[in-house]
Amino acid sequence: MLQFRCTAKVQKEIGLKAKDLNEITDGKSMLGNWYVNISTIDRRKTFLFVNERTLLSFILYGIKKSNISNIHEAFLKALNQLLMLEGIDYSVIDKLNNEYLNLQYTKTGSKQVLGNMNDLMSLYKHFIYSDGGLKHCDLTEIIHRINRTPQKNIGWGYSIDLAKELLLCKQRT
After folding, report:
1. Would the pTM of this model clear 0.90, i.e. be above it?
2. Binning pLDDT at 50, 70 and 90, where does residue 63 land?
3. For residue 74, what are the CA distances in angstroms to 91, 118, 119, 133, 153?
4. Domain 2-162 classified CATH 3.30.420?
5. Hey, where are the domains in the chain?
6. Rounded CA gap, 38 and 62, in Å?
7. Potential cystine with 163: which of 20, 54, 68, 118 (Cβ 3.0-4.6 Å)?
């Protein structure tokens, strides 16, 4: 089970009402649940996804109201691509996809992760704009760089290293 911990802005964008939100539960999957926020970059709505355990992050843009119902599939596709580029074995990615088959929406539950999200969104914007905007930047390289930025909330480690550790640990069990 995958839970998207949505900010109020995301809830409004997706059209979620209070009755549509589930109770927050601990993720029993390899990576756990994901926080989702939305911002505007280059006049495009941009979703930021941040893993609650590892602070692994990536952004997606180009999701419009007409295809917002496909956000789960877009998330999985982007996560799979990120993990493949990082050298994660296909069998591990497949196992994670099976754990993330069902999606629930919840409110956010951690001010600490929300703080990290704000910092990460600032970093994404900085790198994108300093490279000339979405049309000219290498978004894959920016995501790669940000996931290799030391994070205080995970002991000054890198998000990608912690994610790989969790994924490889679960693979052995």
Report:
1. yes
2. confident
3. 20, 22, 23, 22, 27
4. yes
5. 2-162
6. 12
7. 54
